[in-house]
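Section 5.1 Outputs to date
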Amino acid sequence: MGAGLPSLLEVQAAQQRGRAKSVILLWLWGGPSHIDTFDPKPDAPMEYRGPFGTIPTRIPGVHFTELLPRLARRNDKFSLIRSMVTTDGGHPGAGTIGLTGFKESPTVHPNFGSIVSRHRGHTGALPPFFYLGRGIPRDLPR
């Protein structure tokens, strides 16, 4: 059921694609707002959108703010995730879930990068994972 030429071609295309070897995760704790960077809302009322104009990217229908022209020209080379949702409205709690898969707790859970590195091993001159920054904020007022 459902098997046919389109399905076969889709499977063949997936097998021909290259496999990702590296990931660069930019997690901007306290960084610029998503509406001022990668997820502008040009059709929203002024009070809900940022003050910047939008520019098209290489992906049809995807726009960034005018502040990111070089990234807009290269967005066919990276994945942009706009679909993360959590029930925790606070940045520390939501970020902890996003980086570890667990809610905030006294138990320290490893970052996804540590887990992937453990399973994939060390294959090059650079460390398989490193983190720049202050870590996951804990005990911050909400």
